[in-house]
Amino acid sequence: SPFVQIDGVAMRYGGVEGTLALRGASLDVGEGEFIAVVGPSGCGKSTLMRLVTGLWPPTEGTVIVAGKEVSGPLSIAGMAFQNPTLLPWRNILDNVMLPLEVVQPHRRQLRSQRGHYEHKARELLKLVGLAGFEAKFPWQLSGGMQQRASLCRALVHDPRLLMLDEPFGALDVFTREDLWDVLQDVWMARKPTVILVTHDLKEAVYLSDRVLIMSSRPGRIIAERTVPYPRRRS
Ligand code: ADP
Ligand code: ADP
């Protein structure tokens, strides 16, 4: 069965009189599939991401991930957003290693796995061009650098599900295309299930197996296209 099953989902913010952000959304995503979601601002892309990651419960319908109905924040997901959400009191390395504490809350195991995570975190930081910045704090880095660190944090625990909401939005075009390759390499090595929200159709086609197009008023999925010739390097 599909890894992510979204069935008849609707989301209305702020009670019966509130904004209908999403309606009639149904979608199956296979394990290891890479899906891109595109659409104009306000069409409900972020809402869809919040429902799948369990940050909000849907007003209607169900979301099932890995065979279980989502009923609270999903710890198996790695997430990255357009606005980097690094913790200001931690340095970059400790920010990237944060998922370790979520996945492994027991002190003793945490200590024994720390070395493995630290190695992984340093490798990822190198991959995104942040070697040498491990001991800096978020405010000492540019917005784009913080965004790259956020992407490392989303990847550090090899999540089976990657939820990426405009993760490259604040980057210049060259850095962005380098990071496409980083993400593609991670995907090819580990085959996580990926749902990527983007404004950039080129990015969607370059990276994904399938592109969903959403429309606003109120938000719904209006079309779906399989990418016929992925641009992926082999
Ligand atoms: P997108 O990510 O495609 O820009 P969103 O999912 O953020 O779209 O928003 C969809 C609709 O829901 C918009 O009309 C937006 O104003 C509204 N909305 C989003 N988040 C909230 C919220 N927390 N409270 C109320 N309305 C919201
Ligand atoms: P972006 O936001 O796309 O990363 P910026 O124009 O803000 O780009 O920064 C450009 C470059 O400046 C960064 O890629 C980095 O090499 C350098 N830089 C930014 N902040 C620092 C810093 N605190 N220490 C050293 N170099 C930095």
Summarize model confidence as the mean pLDDT.
88
What is bound: which ligands? adenosine-5'-diphosphate
How many helices? The count is: 7
What order do the SSEs take from the amino end to the carboxyl end, as H and E? EEEHEEEHHHHEHEHEE
Overall shape: it is globular
Would you tell me the structural class of the helices and strands? Answer: alpha/beta
Spatial sequence of strands, sheet with the most strands: 6-7-8-3-9-10
How does the major sheet shape up? 6 strands, mixed
Strand fraction equals: 25-35%
Give a count of the beta strands, DSSP E runs of length 2 or more.
10
**Low-pLDDT residue intervals, each spanning 5 or more residues:** none
Question: Which radius of gyration do the C-alpha atoms yield?
Answer: 18 Å
Distance between the termini: 28 Å
- In helices, the fraction of residues equals 25-40%
3D structure, described in words:
Helices cover 33% and strands 26% of the residues. With 234 residues, it is α/β, with parallel strands linked by helices. The chain is globular. The model has no long low-confidence stretch (mean pLDDT 88). A 6-stranded mixed beta sheet has the order 6-7-8-3-9-10, with helices on both faces. The chain has helices at 45-52, 92-96, 98-103, 107-127, 143-155, 173-190, 201-207; strands at 4-13, 19-29, 34-38, 60-65, 68-69, 77-81, 161-165, 193-197, 210-215, 220-226. The structure holds adenosine-5'-diphosphate (ADP) (2 copies). One adenosine-5'-diphosphate binds at residues 140-145, 171-172, 175. The site of one adenosine-5'-diphosphate (ADP) has 13 residues, from strand 2 and helix 1.
